[in-house]
Design brief:
By secondary structure, the protein is of the alpha+beta class. The chain has 2 domains: 251 residues, Glutamine synthetase/guanido kinase, catalytic domain (Creatine Kinase, Chain A, domain 2, 2-Layer Sandwich); 94 residues, no CATH class. 48% of the residues lie in helices and 14% in strands.
Amino acid sequence: MDSRLEMVLHCIPAWLEHAGPQGDVVVASRVRLARNVSGIPFPHVMTGEAGQELCDKTETCLKDLFTDGYVFDPAELSPSEGEFLIERSLASRDLLEEERPTRILFAADGSQGLMVNEEDHFRAQGFAAGLDLEKALFLSREMITCLEQSFDLAYSARHGWLTSCPTNVGSGMRASLLLHLPALAREKSSLQKALQSARSAGLAVRGFHGEGSQALGNLYQISNQRTLGVQEEDQLKQVRQFGLEVTRFEQEIRTQLLKDEASTRSLTSDIQSAYDVLHTSARLTTSQALDALSMLRLAALGGLFGNLGVTFTSEQLLSQAFQLQPGHLQARIGSELDPITRDCSRAELLRKALGIQGA
């Protein structure tokens, strides 16, 4: 593995290290700003020479901002290294699969990242712990401000920022929240009601890693969809308001589960089962491990470990939800693994990280 990525692997991202506002439900906030350079074709039709020139100029432009950061050429990454960056939300699969020159730049603490020549010339991302879209927006804007000093970015007085995909024209912004909803998941109708409420409000509901991904471990991404004719502040307000509402809903359901004796017994039984899965399983798929960790995090938030005699924190369990994913796992092992070996390694490493003695 690239030695620089080894350093990244052993550092918990700033947005995951400590819980932020409403952190029991909202894991993280992310704001992505899409921008393009005037007079240059969009990435999917630009020449390789133009693409390389843009990458080189971008590196020079941002070298002072990312003095302690990293720059990667996706073409030089192995499949597992690319998967690791996808799991950290620092790269997209589309970017990694492109044949044209591309770049990935990000801060050492994982709070800022820039993709060059993905769908748009620039996709700047800011990350913050908990429900803190303002901080995430500030961090993404900081990169765009630097780029504006070297590039004339494509803007229309009528339409706003011009992007490759019409659905991003206007603000060019995607504001998203990563939510953990284990209590709502136990009340399936309540979960479906919450997700339908988001869709009815014009928000996109996606899985763990955004578009095209599954909702593993009761983790969901919610983001704005409208960018044209809507001010950034109004878009942020809509996403923030839903974040507050779903947080209150999740907390209310959690409280109800803990107050009702029958629900608490059922919950305690499921917590024991989740612990037993981690304790005894010789192999764990990503889905099995995330489901077990989700249940244990619900236990941590509700103070229900009791007879288990363990003291896992919600932050510790959340961190492991990232560390056990395929890209992270192979990076920790230091080699490409077949699925069976990967599942065996996941079970072993997860027990070691949580201090669980094997059966």
